[in-house]
Amino acid sequence: MTTLRQALYGLALFGALGLLLWGQYQRIQAEQARADLAAEKVQQLEQRNARQAATITRLDGALQAERTAQASLRTTQDLLRQNLADRLNQIQELERENADLRQWSAQPLPAAARRLRERPAITGAAGYRNWLPGRGAVPPAAGKPSQ
Predict the structure, then answer these.
(1) Which residues of the chain have pLDDT under 50?
(2) What is the pLDDT of residue 135?
(3) Sequential DSSP letters for 63-128
(4) Contact between residue 130 and residue 136 where contact means Cβ atoms under 8 Å apart
(5) Residue 47 has what pLDDT?
(6) What is the pLDDT of residue 43?
(7) Helix, strand, or coil here: 141?
(8) Of the candidates 116, 117, 123, which has an alpha carbon nearest to the alpha carbon of residue 137?
């Protein structure tokens, strides 16, 4: 019976060793799967970071272009203000020098011209569409043009 017992102990030992090896193999497989998943996640995050970096670069370029355009617009506005001031000064000078021009500029605008300058604060297309029918048509000129 001792040989049988030794054989059973040997089998039990081999079985326990086999179970231990199989458990270790399962742990290794699980760790390998976790490592693969982590590597895939790292790759996805790197791709996301690359996309975000490209977006940041693109937005930075757009921002720089917008700032350049705004600076150009400010320069243009300053030039327009200066030109307007120069023209107003020129008109005032001409009015001081020329009595006929002074009289003409003192007269009120004709009714048709005043109506063209009347505009309410309209916001949006719907407001403009609602404003148009109430205006009435601009009357035709008194004389017919020669053809």
Answers:
(1) none
(2) 61
(3) HHHHHHHHHHHHHHHHHHHHHHHHHHHHHHHHHHH-HHHHHHHHSPPPHHHHHHH------HHHHH
(4) no
(5) 97
(6) 97
(7) coil
(8) 116
Distance between CA atoms of residues 57 and 115, nearest Å: 51
Does the pTM surpass 0.85? The reply is no
Q: What is the pLDDT of residue 31?
A: 96
3-state SS, residue 131: helix
Cα dihedral value 97, 102, 103, 109, nearest 10: 160
Q: On the CB side of 12, how many CA atoms lie within 13 Å of its CA? A: 6
Residue in this structure with the two tokens 């009714």, named with its chain if needed = 111
Mapped onto helix, strand or coil, the DSSP state of residue 36 is helix
How many Å is the Cα radius of gyration of the chain?
A: 44
